[in-house]
Amino acid sequence: MRRRSLIAAAGAAALLLAGCANTPRQDAGTLAIGKLTTALPDGVTLLRPARGAPQLVTAQGQARTGQRASANDAQTRFLVGSISKWIATVAVLRLVDQGRLALDQPVTTWLPELPPASRAVTLRHLLSNTSGIPNGVAQALRQDRAAIEGSRITPLEGALRYGTGAPAFEPGSRFDYSFTNWVIVGGIVERVTGDPFQQVVARLVLQPAGVRDTGFADAAWESLPHAALAYAKDKTTRKSSAMPPMVAASGTVYSTAADLVAIADAVYAGGLLSDRARRELLTVQHAAEDYALGCRVREIGKNSTKHTVVWNSGVFGGYKTLLAYAPANGAAVVLLNNTDIEQAEQRETAQKLLDALLQAR
């Protein structure tokens, strides 16, 4: 099955880019894509050379093993880890566009229960992981992991319980990739809207983007149609992670490759956000990490061939995911994996595929 899939992928790659102009550089890009698609890791891969162009979706490996074994395919849903932060940020920016939130207001504007020292922390600091608020969730996990992973408390409850530490450094001066930043983001959204965070994201982002296979995982996640299970590298040992609701903004979204691209199209080329909000989403806040708001933004290529790329990666147990998207023309690479691939390997594969796509334009 894998051999048939790879042969089909190589042929589809050639068809996908058959319309490219016949120049040496473009031929090199097309040839590179054909070669790369014959050696893809297990999971689902989506390639698109430009907005409006056909998408190539290929699948390798198993979504599930054992008695209910099923192969990965274009409809397979994966947990996408920290790509959830980008989706959460889009929801926040929609609320900013509506005048209900402001990026540079103190978080105590909406959560006055937080300590006075948190008045120096803005919503922008949370979304860029530069708040300095101690990672109370991580501290609680070290003390009693089972209790935290089994908790059903909401983002608002979690923010008021675990986000109460005074900033450990001047907000905006350092980068700290902290769960707690995102628990507080979720709590602010719940306080402002009066609705559960997951419902707000569905209403403001997922429904307008027209996606049907994306949502927030809960205890029933594995029973959903087309849900991939996560495995260790031996592809037989199950890996799983609990999903307390309070960390929804940080990493509990599930999606498909096509849905992730549809969301990106709605964000960067549709009417989902104002021009100002899109600029905020693409503005790097911490240069050493290429981190903007909820995602990384990188410049790839040189001089006239330079491209701005939104680079989103995620880890959740054995799930490893990556979305690379060029807002200017919609070139996209998505890699979804459920066998605990090394992130460095996944990143290298995505970079090669994206370089080839951009060369083949």
Automatic annotation (TrEMBL):
<dbReference type="Pfam" id="PF00144">
    <property type="entry name" value="Beta-lactamase"/>
</dbReference>
<dbReference type="InterPro" id="IPR012338">
    <property type="entry name" value="Beta-lactam/transpept-like"/>
</dbReference>
<dbReference type="InterPro" id="IPR001466">
    <property type="entry name" value="Beta-lactam-related"/>
</dbReference>
<keyword id="KW-0732">Signal</keyword>
<protein>
    <submittedName>
        <fullName>Beta-lactamase family protein</fullName>
    </submittedName>
</protein>
<feature type="domain" description="Beta-lactamase-related">
    <location>
        <begin position="67"/>
        <end position="355"/>
    </location>
</feature>
<feature type="signal peptide">
    <location>
        <begin position="1"/>
        <end position="23"/>
    </location>
</feature>
<dbReference type="InterPro" id="IPR050491">
    <property type="entry name" value="AmpC-like"/>
</dbReference>
